């Protein structure tokens, strides 16, 4: 674990020197800090699970988890772009893309040179994102024309190259969904409108997307027609680990702030940390955090070993997201009235904890997957090793 602790120290140094002194300026201007993202990419913070042949560091999922844990712990806002630069977006391309697609997009995404996106969700689709999908892609010679709309596309208004899913066969349900590598700034028909949110970043935002005969060249189709749902389901295993790592970092940040406040806040001549009720809350937070960390690190190690992880990744994501909600709630209680003040970051962290509970599959969706596997109705890992995708993770060829 010495190597992992060195990685953790590197992330802390990077955050303290390159991000924390500047991120509030970008937030005030509502401007994406592209330069900070490029610096993170150059430092190798987005390339852990990718081989050196595409610009990665080949350090594996455990390293990726530790990197995201520390980023989120210090400023969760800067962790928002991780799925776009190191998670589901480049992972989808690496798993299922042609050699040419991988070479063209993956190195630049994980280097932070271009901004990515993953767009699956639509208004009203809920947990049946594929089956209820209404966005259509119709082939027109050497291009596809996409029509429809999407919701909650993180960095959708900043995207240079991202993944967007649409139906090429509306009668085939999930098997009619196709994945596309889209370049919104290069082709017409793409409009992004920022979604206003409370207590979330003003620099790293999500958007509603509107597609009006949006042009995607045929060579930008990812896999074959109908492969989209299979691709995204495999990529979401990485995405759930990303969300779990962010959730753990949020929980740790809330815990750090609670401990600091409990030692500084004086009531009746003593720090409130001397009171048994506060001590009980601090202890409960510490226990939940260590349990989530053990689960998450286990999943990451299993992924690095090439083992089946869909079930355990869902468990880890659900547990870590629950821990983030639990710890931010208790930390806010410990902060008292200051828990809703802009002077302290706990209110922001609590909002991000709520977001993690939903992102990359809601808590209820995770519980369905876990329960159906436990009851013997549906093996959560039934597709392991059967996808034909490139292997991804530490020591990939």
From TrEMBL:
Cofactor(s) needed: FAD
User: In this record, what's one Pfam family?
Assistant: Acyl-CoA_dh_N
- Protein name, per record: Acyl-CoA dehydrogenase
Q: Name one GO molecular function term.
A: acyl-CoA dehydrogenase activity
Q: Residue limits of the Acyl-CoA oxidase/dehydrogenase middle domain?
A: 118-199
The entry's family comment says: Belongs to the acyl-CoA dehydrogenase family.
Q: What residues does the Acyl-CoA dehydrogenase/oxidase N-terminal domain cover? A: 2-113
InterPro entries in UniProt: Acyl-CoA_Oxase/DH_mid-dom, Acyl-CoA_Oxase/DH_mid-dom_sf, AcylCo_DH-like_C, AcylCo_DH/oxidase_C, AcylCoA_DH/ox_N, AcylCoA_DH/ox_N_sf, AcylCoA_DH/oxidase_NM_dom_sf
| Gene3D superfamilies from the UniProt entry | Acyl-CoA dehydrogenase/oxidase, N-terminal domain, Butyryl-CoA Dehydrogenase, subunit A, domain 2, Butyryl-CoA Dehydrogenase, subunit A, domain 3
Specify whether Magnesium is a keyword of the entry. Answer: no
Query: What are the Acyl-CoA dehydrogenase/oxidase C-terminal domain coordinates in residue numbering?
Result: 226-374
UniProt entry tagged with the keyword rRNA-binding: no
């Amino acid at each position: 674990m010495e190597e992992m602790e060195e990685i953790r120290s590197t992330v802390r140094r990077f955050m303290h020197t390159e991000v924390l002194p500047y991120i509030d300026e970008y937030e005030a201007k509502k401007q994406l800090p592209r330069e900070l993202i490029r610096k993170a990419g150059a430092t190798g913070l987005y390339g852990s699970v990718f081989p050196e042949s595409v610009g990665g560091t080949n350090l594996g999922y455990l390293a990726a988890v530790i990197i995201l844990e520390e980023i989120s712990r210090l400023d969760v806002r800067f962790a928002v772009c991780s799925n776009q630069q190191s998670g589901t977006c480049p992972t989808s391309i690496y798993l299922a893309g042609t050699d040419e697609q991988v070479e063209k997009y993956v190195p630049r995404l994980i280097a932070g040179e271009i901004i990515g996106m993953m767009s699956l969700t639509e208004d009203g689709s809920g947990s049946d994102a594929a089956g209820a999908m209404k966005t259509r892609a119709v082939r027109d010679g050497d291009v596809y024309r996409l029509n429809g709309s999407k919701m909650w596309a993180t960095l959708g208004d900043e995207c240079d190259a991202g993944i967007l899913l649409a139906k090429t066969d509306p009668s085939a349900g999930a098997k009619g969904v196709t994945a596309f590598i889209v370049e919104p700034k290069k082709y017409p028909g793409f409009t992004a409108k920022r979604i206003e949110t409370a207590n979330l970043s003003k620099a790293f935002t999500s958007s509603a997307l509107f597609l009006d005969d949006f042009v995607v060249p045929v060579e930008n189709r990812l896999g074959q027609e109908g492969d989209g749902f299979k691709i995204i389901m495999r990529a979401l295993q990485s995405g759930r680990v990303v969300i779990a790592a962010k959730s753990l970092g949020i929980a740790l940040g809330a815990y750090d702030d609670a401990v600091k406040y409990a030692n500084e806040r004086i009531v009746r001549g003593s720090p409130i940390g001397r009171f048994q009720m506060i001590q009980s809350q601090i202890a409960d937070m510490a226990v939940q955090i260590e349990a989530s960390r053990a689960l998450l690190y286990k999943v990451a190690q299993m992924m690095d070993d090439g083992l089946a992880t869909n079930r355990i990744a869902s468990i880890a994501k659900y547990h870590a997201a629950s821990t983030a909600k639990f710890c931010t709630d208790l930390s806010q209680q410990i902060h008292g009235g200051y828990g809703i003040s802009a002077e302290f970051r706990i209110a922001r962290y609590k909002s991000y904890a709520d977001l993690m509970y939903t992102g990359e599959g809601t808590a209820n969706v995770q519980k369905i997957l876990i329960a159906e596997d436990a009851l013997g109705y549906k093996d959560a890992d039934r597709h392991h090793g059967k996808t034909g995708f490139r292997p991804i993770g530490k020591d990939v060829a």
